[in-house]
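Field: sequence (string)
Field: structure_tokens (string)

Example rows 1 and 2, in order.
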Amino acid sequence: MTITLAALSALGACGGGGDDASSGPSTDPTAPTTPPTTPPTTPPTTPTDPAPPTDITVTLAETPTDLNAAAAASTQNWPTWTGTGQAIDGVGCAQTVHYHIHTLVSIYRNGTRLAMPDNIGRSGCTYELHTHDGSGVVHIETDVRKKFMLSQYFSLWRQPFTSTNVAGLSGPFRYYLVENGKLTRYTGDPMALELTAYREIVILTGPNPPTVLPNYKWTPGL
């Protein structure tokens, strides 16, 4: 019995092969941990639909108006045009005239009809497209039948003709055609508008467009 107790006492003094807390790394279960950084969230936004366009109704006057009165009923807006006689966007100087038609171009800003400059295409030479006065009547005079577009008229005039800028005026724009005494809204590509005989091309801009357009009567000789 005495020998056994002595052996046990010796083992206790040597640690008895048990785990010593100072022999390995220690872990403190109470040490604070840094949580992962989470970027701030932005609340979702609801897209805003654009405001609907103002719906207007434009009609053609029942009583015809003589086309000769168009210039006097229009307000001057653009400077005098000058040219050099050089071809512009396929429009050259007129030679012998065997084909002669007329188209009317009317531009309104806030209900006011704007006068075209006198003699667009009549400086340097008389171009195949030209005007005589502020009425907006475009004369097409060529040696053979030719097809001209509204965009070519603006090129000759040296004025912008885009979806946001027409002759220095800002949009949005509305287009109408008057043919054979009938008014129709044109929603196609303005670049595809042709200058044809006895057609009126109407361009409206501004928040207060006219609701009744003059019913211009083509005078004899035009």
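Row 2 begins here:
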Amino acid sequence: MKKLHLFDKIVFVFNAIIATVLLLSLILPFLPPKTFSFLSVLSLGVPLLILLNVLFFLYWLIKIKRQLLLSLLVLFIGYVFHGSLYKFSTSNDIKIDNPITVMNFNVRLFNLYDWIKEKDIDFKIVNFVKSENPDILCIQEYHPNSRIDFSFFKYRYEKLSGKSTRHGQVILSHYPIINSGSIEFPNTANNAIYADVVKNKDTFRIYNIHLESLKIDTDVEKLKEEGSERLLKLAGTTFKRQQFQSELFLLHKRQCPYKMIICGDFNNTAYSYVYRKIKGNLNDTFKEAGAGFGRTYDFKFFPVRIDFIFADDSFVVNKFKTYDDHLSDHYPIMTSLSLE
């Protein structure tokens, strides 16, 4: 520090703060929000913290200063515990006959309230799904209306709530559904549903989860209007509810007698407590076969991945794709699986 110019000293102070916060955030998946609600808010900012530490590392690397070791060490620890924020290449790209393709998509009520200033978003979503033709489709924030026609799926299970605007989750399948049901989350429109699907002689369960939303507008001007104290309190309360909802889900999951695939919008990142608990020993299909940042939510500041597809070890993950089609505030994701 003594040999650094004043500007570099200031940069290193900020570097040390950001590195320390990132290091602290790496233990968040192990801290229940009910006990550490304030710290749990950091899980949303981990991608940004990683990117900032990369920038600090590059800054010191260009200057050929040993201060680069701080961010390098923290980034290395993060990589060991959580893997890379960015996937440089797909792990698998296996061509197999008759794979099981599973898509997850939060459709935001098919643009019911014209959030996207474009006509016929609902038709475009249906046509998009039809063109990609997944074997199984999990939708969050589904809103039925006469314009929505998913009749090209032979089997379905949906669970709706609400009075004026009925909405909820749905599972659509080309394979027969022999059993289905809902895991109710109290005092919310969010829930989890499941369907037991049969392909040939194999039966497996599809879960579709939608955890509590932060209900925060990510528009910059709208964020400025919100007080930081209120935002932190809201996020902490939301993450507590997410923990309770995930605990209800896990009670049901433990009794499942079948191989399973879990889809959903967790409204939280891969650095969160609920992600770690719900994933358990399942495989995150993005980590197995995805590429890039895997962004699934239209956040204005940095890439955020809050929608997931997990599969247990009975499935081989062949492919994973994150789509760029802007038909909702979420982006659809799809994986290709095969049974061992």
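free_text_note (row 2): The longest helix spans residues 228-253.
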